[in-house]
Write a structure and sequence with these properties.
The protein contains 11 helices and 9 strands. By secondary structure, the protein is an alpha/beta fold. Strands 1, 2, 3, 4, 5, 6, 7, 8 and 9 form a 9-stranded mixed β-sheet that branches.
Length: about 280
């Protein structure tokens, strides 16, 4: 690989993140076969001392641009602040408790170099509990643009934590816009409506921490209402027709509202994941 592959990593951390997991996540992007040119870290509101000590240690690294928000603004708003601060055209997303595989960025840059029409390049994830040896699921997403856009009509087609995208294209559709738990899906839809192209590498790019709380976050009326609103957006913009809209909403009502957390977790792992 060439040494002049300049790109940014955009990452957010908030007070509830585990300090050890956060350090592991950051180190996974620093120990890549192709290193980031800058890391924009948004500290979304106050954090405990145990976490702040680690954040302050990274301040000594010149590639870090650490932005501290006085109050917690939420995921979508924090992502927006981070993206606006990124200096480079290619921006890779990262979460504060996951682990990028060592050649993730190298693979993504190769794809962008081979096809300049692409706006976003993601990949698959492995979901684990406690250690990366304990893989409990895999989220496999479609590879090619046409398949991604078809899949988008039913489910989110990109694993957000794996995505590297073209900042100009993302900015052209409004960037990150706050939408409870659906900021990424909403962004992919707006890129789709703008005629942009996608690609998913068919390899595991990120190991993602999961647990019972993940399924709790994916349930409840607030989450369902947010998803239902997104389905209305899709229908209004003719991404989907009336029949698909009804089917999508009913499925979400059952899984997100009517099912208990344990059964919801089983449904996700049985029907939405590979083991």
């Amino acid at each position: 690989m060439e040494k002049n592959n300049s790109f940014s990593v955009s990452m957010c951390v908030y007070g509830g993140d585990n300090p050890h997991d956060f350090k592991t996540a950051v180190d996974s992007i620093l120990n890549q076969t192709v290193s980031p040119t800058e890391v924009v870290l948004v500290v979304d509101g106050p954090v405990p001392e145990t976490l702040d000590v680690i954040i302050k240690a990274y301040e000594q690294n010149p590639i870090f641009n650490i932005i501290r928000l006085k109050t917690n603004r939420g995921h979508g708003n924090a992502r927006r602040v981070g993206l606006e601060a990124c200096k480079y055209e290619l921006v890779a997303l990262m979460d504060a408790d996951d682990i990028s595989v060592t050649d993730r960025f190298e693979k993504q840059i190769k794809v962008f170099k081979s096809d300049h029409s692409l706006s976003a390049v993601g990949g698959n994830i492995h979901e684990f509990i406690n250690t990366t040896d304990n893989i409990v699921g895999k989220r496999i997403v479609p590879e090619k643009d046409a398949d991604i856009k078809e899949y988008m009509k039913k489910r989110c087609p990109m694993n957000q934590v794996t995505v590297m995208f073209n900042k100009t294209d993302v900015d052209s559709v409004g960037g990150y816009i706050d939408w409870y738990c659906e900021e990424d899906y909403y962004l992919w839809l707006r890129l789709y409506l703008a005629g942009k192209s996608f690609y998913n590498i068919q390899d595991n790019l990120v190991d993602v921490r999961v647990g019972d709380e993940m399924y709790q976050r994916r349930g409840g009326w607030k989450y369902f209402k947010s998803e239902a609103k997104l389905q209305r957006f899709m229908r209004k913009n003719k991404v989907i027709g009336f029949r698909t809209y009804i089917v999508n909403v009913i499925k979400r009502l059952v899984v997100q509202v009517l099912l208990p957390n344990k059964i919801r977790g089983w449904v996700f792992q049985t029907f939405a994941r590979e083991n």
